[in-house]
Amino acid sequence: MPTDIHQYPSDLPARPAFCTTGKAVAVRVNQYKLASFPNNDIYQYDVSIGTGAEKMGKIMFVWKSNQVQNKLKAAAGNECWLWDGNKLAWNSTRIPEQRILVDLDAERGRAPRPGKESEKIYCHIRQSKVVRLSVIAAYLNQQTPFDNAILEAINFLDHAIRQGPSEKYTCLKRSFFTKGITQQPLDNVIVAMKGVYSSIRLCSLKPSVGGTSTGLALNVDVANGTFWTAQDVHQAARNFLKDRNRNLDWNTFKNQLLPIKRGNTFHQSEDFKTLRKMGKLKFKVKYPGKQVDKKVLDKEHRIKGFTFDASKGPQGANAKTVTFNLKTPDNPNGHETSVFDYYKMKYGCSIQMWNLPLITTERDGMFPMELCQLVPNQQYKFKLSPDQTSAMIKFAVTRPQARIGSINHGVGMLSWNTDKYLNHYQIKVENQMTLTNARLLQNPEIAYAGAKVNPGTAGRWDLRGKKFLLANPEPLTSWGVCVIQNACDEATVKNFLNVFIQTYIGHGGKVTNKNPAIYFQGRNQDLADTAMSARLAAGNQSKSMPQIILYVLPGRDSFTYERLKKNMECRFALVSQMLNVQHVRKAQPQYCSNVCMKLNAKLGGTTCKVVGVPNANAPAFPRPTMVIGADVSHPTPGSPQPSMAALTMSFDQYAARYAAAVQTNGYRTEMISENNVNTMFIPLFKQWVGKVGGGNGPQHIYYFRDGVSEGQYAHVLDKEVHNMKEALFKNFGEVAKVIKWTVIVCTKRHHIRFFPKENDTQAGDRNGNPLPGTLVEKDVTHPFEYDFYLSSHSAIQGTARPVHYHVILDEAKVAPNDLHMMIYRQCYQYMRSTTPVSLYPAVYYAHLASNRARAHESAPASEGPRGGQKFEEARIDAAVRGNLAQQASRGETSQSGSQPANPSEAKPLLPLGDPTNNIDVATVTKIRTGMWYI
User: Fold this and answer.
1) Is the CB of residue 327 less than 8 Å from the CB of residue 333?
2) H helices of 667-717, where?
């Protein structure tokens, strides 16, 4: 029967055609094709161990036990059972239901505990499904729709590929790590390690280079992980608590863990609570004073906690104060002895740091910290400090050639050719990276006032001697500078202003007041009063409403920054520009030029626009077009802040300027709510009609959505886009129905990288990165849906990460050549840069705005920071001051990580321009349709 009779198109748009513009280039991608995989049926089994309440460690032990593995091997005739670590298993053989009774004591080679029976547990295995691998080929040939059967088949292959490495290496999701030379200490607590990431993916049946393909491949990349440094537990604990013990003094460390007396009772110190983060870490025990059996030395224990007993008083529960009843053959009734005395008597070792808390375990008793050593390769799961983050970035960022070396090392670790599971299931993987035919798109020219720049493939250009395309529409007459915390003196400010004003005028900026008011924050003056005074000083000097205030900040205090932004934007509907005092002192023209780009945008100007090659006069869009970018950002773990939605909208005919609306969006909710669509989208749309459309709406809307996974594509269409269309119809009637929508999801959260061939100057730069404009739409993309990868920027350091664009709706039927070029070209007109950016600007701006929205929270400054590093620091400081009651009332989390439940609905943000502050409508409209967030 002809296959075209049973065609099942995807729910998402099919790729209409491949790109034909630009220049053909060949690049390697870090994808390895499956040369073959089975087409037969596989049997899936449900695995039930014990009552279902058992911990993962016991479940793992039972499954790996000789009693279970021997029985399964005998039943199936092979030992290649795949197991997902929980409730599912697979094998190529169908076997009858198994109920295996496992004697745990016998498995461990030990006798039952005195007076107790052997610990036994059942492992129940029964077939639940038949996985038909033939459905993969059927889907790739569009003979069947994508459904659970295909997911189950791919899931099986994924487990088959990961089973072997997971038995040899430390496994973190889809990444594998082994202790080797590719590791580096970030400090004395954490070590960074390089591993290998591997994931199966669908690809085209028709490769762009070579013969046929199976339609499946493995994406292999470098994985960077953080792990606890293998060291003695007491050293790890001291180093972990170094925030208030910078000199790593042992006496200070001991005092940090002592109980704190409040009222008549003793309580755990905050540092003691912090040690709970070491819970579940594995360790081995050393016995320095006595020879012990190797089995005892090799046994791994797990930290449950650390001893605390309020009744032990100010000394705490340590090796000398914690006692237990020790029974011996000579004294069957036992006698009370301390842990300190027990170790001296039993093992001949005298505990040196006896005044520290003891480690507690689930079943193995208590151990002194100094005798215990952390096992290597244990993941560090907590947020890195700024210093650790900086060190991690230096470790992780590698140039393309070094990355290829690491990937090749990872491929060696995976050893596909000798993997017993892959051999058993007849899965073969090619050992060479995929070579794909890509396109190098023609770069645009960048137009400034009276000049054009052609950066070629360099990916950067110079602003010197260039005037902004559009300078500030209103001359800068009423403005001022405010110095926070006496960061510098007046002479320094005036010197900076001289260079800055000269630079801005050189770029075409209009400045009529060259001696703006300078205000210094008063001693102990609150920031809110400072902002008010600075605004008054600027307004009084010029006898008019201020246009912008510049703030000189003493450092990178995010809380100060957010408070000033909140006062300016929400109280006064006034834009501002923050300046770092170090740069103000240097007053370098390049820094001033960078500030000018941001300041000019805030004042209503435009840095530049792109023009087509060869037709420089061609319009940016063939019809009236609106571009929207959307993003939802989520707070740091532990923060009481809600999620923030941001929506940006183009506000000129060539989509260079973007307005932004922001609002809370529930708690960890990714889809923008219907209410937010109505309150964010519709007001901006109405302003667009008046300011850009000349009284008419757009004929075409591009909607770029950031940060959603493939499983959420349908939600974007069914909720966000549907709600926007409904809102337009309610407000504008039938005319809204003629608007064509093109919806594109873009993401950078993937592991695909491009690697031009060595010394290929036609495709790569001097660092080995792809040239800006490299477009890949074959081999690594979906077999038939409309997606592509675009590397639009020039990577300053490391390996360039392309952006993945997936068209999930295209009512306008935009030609692929036109869509690719539009996206690439507009990456060159990012308002505050002289380089093309990696991500489409509408989305980039939405990301900036959603993060900036946190400054607009309706919460008094007295509550302190509510997110980020300052929130963490304030949380610790409040605990140190004993300000626990205030901390609880603020809804903060304790150092132990407990967190109060969030309210059912997130409180709305403060609006831009407080309506109770007697601010006129025109001023409010100006900031709401401007680039206040940049």
Assistant:
1) yes
2) 674-676, 682-691, 713-715
> Is the pTM here over 0.70, yes or no?
yes
Contact 395, 186 (CB under 8 A): yes
| Alpha carbon distances (Å) from 315 to 149, 205, 354, 757, 882 | 62, 71, 11, 66, 20
Three-state SS string over 251-317 comes to: HHHHHHCCCEEECCEEECCHHHHHHHHHCCCEEEECCCCCCCCHHHHHCCEECCEECCCHHHHHHCC
Q: Is residue 183 within a helix (H) or strand (E), and if so which, with residue range?
A: strand 183-185
* Helices and strands of the chain, counted as H and E runs: 27, 41
Q: What are phi and psi of 827, to 5 degrees?
A: -65, -15
CA dist 521 → 479, 487, 515, 538, 551 (Å): 16, 10, 19, 14, 10
Q: Which one-letter amino acid corresponds to residue 323?
A: T
Q: How far is it, in rounded angstroms, from Cα 418 to Cα 164?
A: 10
Q: Rounded to whole angstroms, what are the CA distances from 709 to 150, 199, 497, 864?
A: 18, 16, 47, 34
Least confident of 316-330, 675-689, 778-792, 837-851: 316-330
**How does DSSP assign 335-349, residue by residue?**
EEEEHHHHHHHHH--
Helices marked H in 121-275: 134-140, 148-168, 233-240, 250-256, 270-274
* Joined tokens for residue 780: 């690594």
Query: 69-73, 89-93, 334-338 — which is least confidently predicted?
Result: 334-338
At what angle are helices 558-566 and 527-542 packed, to 10 degrees? 50
Distance separating alpha carbons of residues 231 and 188, to the nearest angstrom? 9
Distances, alpha carbon 106 to alpha carbons 111, 117, 698, in Å: 7, 11, 75
Nearest to 370 by CA among 319, 336, 295, 320: 319
Helices (H), 383-427: 386-396, 400-414, 420-424
Residue found by looking up tokens 């690439």 in the block = 824
User: Helix 558-566 crosses helix 868-880 at what angle (to 10 degrees)?
Assistant: 110
- H or E segment and range at residue 726: helix 722-732
Is there a contact between 654 and 870 (Cβ–Cβ < 8 Å)? no
Burial (CB count <10 Å: 0-12, 13-18, 19+), residue 314: exposed
Amino acid letter, 282:
K
Q: For tokens 């046994």, name the residue.
A: 299
CA distance 476 to 218: 57
Cα–Cα dist 804/844, whole Å: 14
Query: Over the stretch 655-697, which tens digit does the pLDDT of each residue have?
Result: 999 999 999 999 999 999 999 999 999 999 999 999 999 999 9
Question: Rounded CA gap, 807 and 707, in Å?
Answer: 14
In sequence order, the β-bridge partners of residue 788 are 805
DSSP state of 717: I
Q: Find out whether 384 and 300 touch, Cβ atoms under 8 Å.
A: no
Q: In the numeric block, which tokens belong to residue 660?
A: 């932004």
* Letter string b/e over residues 577-592, b meaning 16 or more CB atoms within 10 A of that residue's CB: bbbebebbeebeeebb
The residue count of the chain comes to 934
**Mapping DSSP to helix (H, G, I), strand (E, B) and coil, where does residue 664 land?**
strand
705 — phi, psi (to 5°)?
-115, 130
- Give the per-residue pLDDT at 731: 96
User: Which element (helix H / strand E) includes 776?
Assistant: strand 774-776
| H or E segment to which residue 66 belongs | helix 66-76
With beta carbons less than 8 A apart as the criterion, state whether 504 and 600 touch.
yes
Check whether 19 has a pLDDT greater than 80: yes
Distance CA 545, CA 536 (A): 9
DSSP state of 486: G
